[in-house]
Amino acid sequence: MRCGQNLQGCEVDRGVNFKVAIEHLEPELSKWLLYEYENAAKVLGKSLIFTNIKRPPRTLTKLSTIKRQSALRLFPHETLILDPRAKKTLTPQDLKGDSIAVIGGILGEHPPRGRTRTLLTLKAPKAKARNLGNWQFTIDGAAYVTNLIASGKKLELIPVKCGLVLRANFKPSGVHEVLLPYAYPIVANKPLISNKLVNYLMNAKNPKIAWRNRPLV
Questions:
Q1: What pTM does this model have?
Q2: Per-domain residue ranges for the chain?
Q3: Which residue, 114, 107, 207, is CA-closest to 167?
Q4: Strand partners, 180
Q5: Interval 59-110: pLDDT, tens
Q6: Tens of pLDDT along 141-177?
Q7: Residue 192's CB: how many other CB atoms inside 10 A?
Q8: Is 116 helix (H, G, I), strand (E, B) or coil?
Q9: How many Å is the Cα radius of gyration of the chain?
């Protein structure tokens, strides 16, 4: 795999038919979602399709192909849903042929409520469903991991850590922290997270990023 720290030009050796659809499932396209979508587009390039977006903003149309219809309708026979509650784990063999991996465009919650299963998997009983291990990834993180698995890498060989803390010192109020209790792939010794998202969440320049050093509860 050849991939810069900013993920631009991220390339893996994968099948020519490899495609990923991010199915937008939130009522609104928030900045948080948009920044994760942008990062996913950097990872996947032309392999990415955004689906179920009725009124795509100009910022999103610049990133990749946009479809107003659901991926379940567009690809009824090729759909492979990435569902954290699926019984089987995604393997490179699953992504051979014409399978379209579908990632739910959903903002995560802790603990997870299983919305991918409700909004996607149960609506496509004939589709394959696969998990990415015992993790709740961000949207761009799931895109990155799927991209690696498509290249032939096994999930257990992909470095991942869980629980990210964003920290900034605001004077005179003191230190402000935001905990992101999700799984993040490690790229060039750093968590894969959008710089735009970090700055947006903290409303500060160059906030510090650290791993949470105690178990999530």
A1: 0.89
A2: 19-157, 160-211
A3: 207
A4: 164
A5: 888 889 999 999 999 999 889 999 999 999 999 999 988 889 999 999 988 8
A6: 999 999 999 999 999 999 999 999 999 887 777 788 9
A7: 22
A8: helix
A9: 17
DSSP state of 137: B
**19-157: CATH, from 3.90.180.10, 3.40.50.410, 3.40.50.2300, 3.40.1280.30:** 3.40.1280.30
Mean pLDDT confidence for 191-214: 87
Q: Both tokens of residue 88?
A: 């089987």
Selection from 15-24, 87-96, 200-209 with the highest mean pLDDT: 87-96
CB-count exposure of residue 102 (10 Å: 0-12, 13-18, 19+): buried
Query: What DSSP string describes 25-87?
Result: -SSS--HHHHHHHHHHHHHHGGGEEEES-SS--HHHHTTSEE-SS-HHHHSTTTEEEE-TT-S
What is the three-class DSSP state of 174?
strand
Task: Give the pLDDT score at 2.
Answer: 46
What's the confidence (pLDDT) of residue 205? 73
* Secondary structure class of 161 (helix, strand, coil): strand
d(CA 93, CA 97): 9
